[in-house]
Structures are given as C-alpha cells and as structure tokens.
Design a protein that fits this description.
single chain; alpha+beta; Glutaredoxin; four-stranded mixed sheet; 4 helices; 4 strands; 42% helix; globular; Thioredoxin-like_sf
C-alpha cells in the first residue's frame, strides 16, 4: 500500500513538472492581467501542451511592483541566473519559447533588471 502511494506521489510530482530544469513564471497579479498577461500565459500553456516541452514548469507569480514593465515573464534554468522579461506580448512570448526555451538563447534586448 505504501509503495503504491509513494509511486502515485512521484508520478504526480513528475506530471506537474515540479522537477523540471526550466521554470517559467508569468506575472498574474490583477494589474498584470489588465496589461495582457492572460494572453501571454496562454501562449506558454499551448506550447508546453502541444510542442513537447516536457522539461518546462509553468506557473504564475504575484505582484513584482513593476507596473510599468508588465506583463512580466521570468525564466529560471538550472545552474543559470534567472532572466526577467518585461512588457511581454503574445508575439514576444512565442519568441521566448523558440529562442530561449528551445535554443537556450537569452533575448538580451527584452531583459529587465
């Protein structure tokens, strides 16, 4: 019984992507939603679901206090410095997926500090 429960828990952890080497956090505070972050989140959700990005964990984050830079997206990769992108649109989200997540190329022009 315990072995079965343990296996189920491990499968749940793996299935949710908690051990992924890449993590993407989309700002989803009220002001970020008003700035368009739901659309940005949808682009990442679709890519993870339909493009086999099994090594990417996607989640929301709260207010960062940077209203002038919203929507924001943070990419955290194992062993690397986190990268924060600002004023992210649907099109920019698509490029972040193609360049940063798939090819490992940070888009320096969009980084916020």
């Amino acid at each position: 019984m315990i072995k079965k429960k343990r296996a189920e828990a491990i499968n749940r952890i793996l299935g949710k992507g908690y051990l992924s080497t890449k993590r993407v956090y989309v700002g989803m505070a009220t002001c970020e939603i008003a700035a368009g972050s739901k659309d940005v989140m949808a682009v990442f959700e679709n890519a993870i679901k339909n493009e086999g990005l099994t090594d990417v964990y996607l989640s929301q984050k709260g207010c960062a206090g940077r209203c002038n830079l919203e929507p924001t997206v943070e990419v955290v990769e194992e062993g690397k410095i986190p990268v924060k992108y600002g004023k992210v649109t649907r099109e920019m989200a698509r490029q972040i997926i193609d360049q940063h997540l798939k090819k490992g190329e940070v888009i320096k022009e969009w980084i916020i500090h």
